[in-house]
Specification:
about 250 residues; alpha/beta
């Protein structure tokens, strides 16, 4: 039986890296994307040493031309992607919607929405043609319950939900499956990026309770992908036990 080929965007840290590690050695071949070539190469070497087949595609998902060229460069035996994990995403700042940076908002929308659409457009037609495939989009609880200071990020993750749902409808007459995984608070590099490298502010986001780890979300993704072909895990909201909404957490003093 041919090994599944899994393409993961944003694979050099957080949920994406955890997904790469979870799928490694499970009868899969990994195509890993990220902007940091050194980190990609380090991860590739580590996973190859553990017995996995790995290829890297270093590009910024906001660069559509680079994305297209990278996907087109895959050798024929690697080009048949079985699982696409649209993981690359970020938030920048927590300004009020009438005070935020237009440039930062462009970066968030280009990364979280336009890049997901572009990668889907590049990869999914081949899945349809072959009659097999699974698209996993990493959304967020923020797409369900917006909060102050996060309007554009929340809107981008609401778009991920809408795009996942509409793609599932578009593919209903095919064997393909679509899953939207919506994590709550996950302790990754996410908050450090959001607060422009301010580690103290990032740490405060997870203070007083046990947040999710990237590995927890990767386990959910693995479960969805591993389900029998007739089972479609359409949507999963996964949160720390101490979290109830986007903003409400029980924090120990």
């Amino acid at each position: 039986m041919k090994a599944k080929t899994i393409l993961i965007t944003g694979a050099t840290s957080g949920i994406g890296e955890a997904c790469a590690r979870r799928f490694a050695g499970q009868g899969t071949r990994l195509i890993l994307n990220g902007r940091n070539t050194a980190k990609l190469d380090e991860l590739r070497r580590e996973l190859e040493a553990a017995g996995s087949e790995v290829r890297t595609l270093p590009f910024d998902v906001r660069d559509r031309e680079a994305m297209s060229s990278a996907v087109a460069s895959l050798p024929e035996d690697w080009s048949e992607v079985d699982v696409l994990i649209n993981n690359a995403g970020l938030s920048l700042g927590d300004d009020k919607e009438y005070e935020g940076s237009l440039e930062e908002w462009d970066t968030v929308i280009d990364t979280n929405v336009r890049a997901l659409l572009a990668m889907t457009r590049l990869v999914v037609p081949g899945m349809v043609e072959r009659g097999r495939g699974h698209i996993v989009n990493i959304g967020s609880i923020a797409g369900d319950t917006p909060y102050g200071g996060g309007g554009v990020y929340c809107a981008s993750k609401a778009a991920v939900k809408a795009l996942s749902d509409s793609l599932r409808i578009d593919l209903v007459d095919t064997p393909l499956r679509v899953t939207n995984v919506k994590p709550g608070k996950v302790e990754t590099h996410f908050s450090v990026t959001r607060y422009h490298g301010d580690q103290a502010r990032a740490d405060a986001v997870y203070e007083g309770f046990e947040p999710l780890r990237g590995e927890d979300v990767a386990e959910v993704v693995y479960f969805a992908v591993s389900a029998p072909d007739h089972v479609q895990i359409a949507e999963v909201l996964v949160m720390p036990t101490a979290q109830a909404t986007s903003t409400l957490c029980a924090r120990k003093k």
